[in-house]
From TrEMBL:
Classification via SUPFAM superfamilies: Acetyl-CoA synthetase-like
A cellular component term, taken from the record's GO annotations: endoplasmic reticulum membrane
Protein name per Swiss-Prot or TrEMBL: Long-chain-fatty-acid--CoA ligase
Entry similarity comment: Belongs to the ATP-dependent AMP-binding enzyme family.
Catalytic activity: tetracosanoate + ATP + CoA = tetracosanoyl-CoA + AMP + diphosphate; a very long-chain fatty acid + ATP + CoA = a very long-chain fatty acyl-CoA + AMP + diphosphate
Residue segments, region Disordered: 116-136
DNA repair is among the record's keywords: no
Native source species: Eulacestoma nigropectus (wattled ploughbill)
A matching Pfam family: AMP-binding
RNA-binding in keyword set: no
AMP-dependent synthetase/ligase domain sequence ranges: 15-113
Length: 136
């Protein structure tokens, strides 16, 4: 019954519902930090604002995300979902030809990466480093 709804209920819809109902409830524990729904909503709103205002990111533009498994990954995903941008998830352990292939297959117009991932595609990767934001 849930799947037949039009429009469909997305994970973003579920997140936003929980953020409204239980803003102070823990959502994520990472190392010694605890992030509530409110924290993640605030971080993702800031990220969405920066992506849209500072980079001019528009709905339906695919963004490749090359981030390690940390809270930034979650609020980046939420920010992109709020903007209506498909996210191509890149494995941050992949390098060289496999990474170039994943980038080409994603047909992303922007690559978001953590500072620790800079320069991993090399000069022939076809990706320009912009301080954590890469552009094909």
């Amino acid at each position: 019954r849930r799947f037949s709804r039009c429009p469909a209920i997305t994970l973003l819809d579920v997140f936003q519902l929980h953020a409204r109902r239980r803003p102070h409830q823990p959502l994520l524990r990472f190392q010694d930090e605890i992030y509530t729904y409110e924290d993640m909503d605030r971080h993702s709103n800031r990220a969405a604002w920066a992506l849209s205002r500072r980079l001019g990111l528009q709905s339906s533009r695919t963004v490749a995300v090359f981030l390690p498994n940390e809270p930034t990954y979650l609020w980046t995903w939420l920010a992109l979902a709020k903007l209506g941008c498909p996210m191509a998830c890149l494995n941050c352990n992949v390098r060289g030809r496999a990474l170039r292939h994943a980038l080409e297959a994603a047909q992303a117009t922007l690559v978001l990466a953590s500072p620790g991932e800079r320069g991993t595609t090399g000069s022939s990767g076809g990706v320009r480093n912009m301080g954590g934001l890469w552009s094909p």
